[in-house]
Fold:
Amino acid sequence: MWLGLAYCTGPVDAHGYRKTAVQSAQAALNAVRTGALAADAQLLDPYASTLLGDQLGAVAAAQEQLLAEPPPDSGTRNVRDQLLPLLNGSAVQLGDLAYAMSTGDLAAVRAHQEQLRRLGDQLDDFVERYR
Amino acid sequence: MNELYVSFHLLDRQIVDRDGLEVGKVDEVELGIDDRGAPYLAALLVGPQAFGPRISGWLGRLLTGLARRLRTDRSGPLRIPYDLVRQVDSAVELSVRRDLLREPELESWLREHLIGRIPGSAE
Amino acid sequence: MKKFLAFTLGILTAIGGFVDIGDLVASSLSGARFGLALAWVLVLGVIGICAYAEMAGRVVAITKRPVFDLVRERLGPRVALVNLVASYLVTLLTLAAELGGVALAIELVTSVSYLLWVPVVGFVLWVALWRVKFETLERIFGLLGLVLVVFVVALFRLPGHGPDLWHQALSPVPTPGENWNTYWYFAVSLFASALTPYEVFFFSSGGVEENWGPRQLPEMRVNVFIGFPLGGGLALALMAVSAEVFHPLDAQVTSLGQVALPAALALGRLGLAVAILGFFAATFGAAMETGLSAAYVVAQFFGWPWGKRLQPRRAARFHTVLLVSVLLGIVALMTTIDPIQLTEYMLVFSAVVLPLTYLPILVVANDRGYLGDHVNGRLANAVGVIFLVVIVAAAAAAIPLMIVTGAGG
Amino acid sequence: MSDLVTADLIGKVAYHRSGEYLGRVADVVVAPDPEGTWRVTHLVVSHPPWGRLLGYERDEETGPWLLVMLARRMLRRNTRRVRWREVRIGEDDRHA
Structure:
């Protein structure tokens, strides 16, 4: 992480930007997959809220990581514009899933789980494409 | 054993008393010179004052400085006459009990001012 | 009962090497990223630590000299002092990480931020190390750590991809999307964690605490050959469930909460609760191991009276180092440094100093003047030398790999 | 002549009485005289010095084979025992 931070400072080239974008996408992918899995399991309440809280934090960090640097060219602007909605969607779905799980609203849990799976597939494609 | 390599068999080896309790490390060995000018094994020296000079460079200076600050320095190293050594194997065993030797000041100071004041220190 | 509990020192030692906070996450993460393609490293690590812990245990049983005693005696004061400084720092920072690990485990069942638990955990740890007998601590936490066996049960309850796992385990190459540098970075850190130096410091000092003599040689071997494979087996189970659950989804594991998720998926709330209890026991056990080891190495280097078998007032310098180390650990964590990242970096740095700890053990285990007829046989020497070479190679590769991969990025 | 500590000898340059350069002192050998006093009999000099020799300068170290080979080669080539009476300890570092 420390080294990661060192890498992120200073203006980046297109390659560096894509690398950062892939890292952000991978972090969000980890989080949404975890959220979708958690929706399937019988969990203890404090555990569920800590787990999903951590995942939300990870997505927020990924957003920040992506937005902290300006994209150096039009190609990377395009990369950012593809990824950003996925990250936002992930944050929204994870937050709503946490709420649905805490209130025991099973129908809503299923719906958010479905959305998270879809976002997961899209993020997975993104990572594959730009790695 | 009919001969000893001072550096290998003695230096940096653990010293234990007759009951196997730790006394310290052989931090340095003192050689005496008799009337005819022939050197012999006189004593084992224990303590950072004896050890520090053997470590050159910044580590040695750090250690000696630390020892001075930690008030272990006042009466010089503990000197154990070689007559008190009973046996040398994986440790250097003395023929006396630890209580008969001077206790390092750092140990007494910490016992008096810190460890001994915490409830349960004698259990 | 005494016989039955005879292996708890080995278990507790192995916990620090295989399922402490860093390893819980590292094993799961490598399972998620590489499936079982790195399982061989755990097997290798178990063999290596068994060989060297057996040598260190034998030296203690025959001569009562724990490992750091030998380090100074054989390497001379200067090199030993460098090793002392490095080993102490690694052990201290690992202690800090373990305190964080205990606090993270508690956070999972309270949802109160781990930072608030750290001082509490630190205080409880110190009280335990101050008041409770060595054997009692060893038994409670050695045995409690075994509840991590829940991950073995989970492995069999998860919808099976058994053939996939075998396939991954038998083809030790990076999985698609991963490269060789990252693969080797993970291999080196898993290997270094299996052989962390504080394991042999703790195991050999524990032998002195338990007053081993030549008659305890069989008991010592039971500890080694049951304890370490059990610890390694638990790590393997963590890797396997993660390979089963996360790897097919291309998802990585970065937090302790995620590590427990497969147990919840397979076994529901009870499985989850047992897994978290296991995390607590393992990290607390590892905190005891690293806390004591930090004090052991300093005391053994300087020749001070040490150990929990003495009254604290009879070992004032030892107990002062212990107290100060726990305090420093708490302070280090309160800087909000991430405990999981911390152990992973420590592993890399400890890989660099490993040879300075293992070489003296190998040399003394061959010294007839010390061990008489109990010197190493051919097998122990063959394994010892091979592992020394591997250890040196890992030491040389650790930092370059960390830099090229951006620490596994 | 006042008392010595081993640091006054170990690592120092040793010459033969005849003036021949011997190397640096690696160890000091003592043996008991009839009265039981341990007297310095020999110095182990090595050229160049190789720190501590892990104990391989004695015969009790039996393995592993690889380390024994390495240590023995180094020892045979570079170290020898010289009688105390035949040695003069020098201060200068010309041969370092």
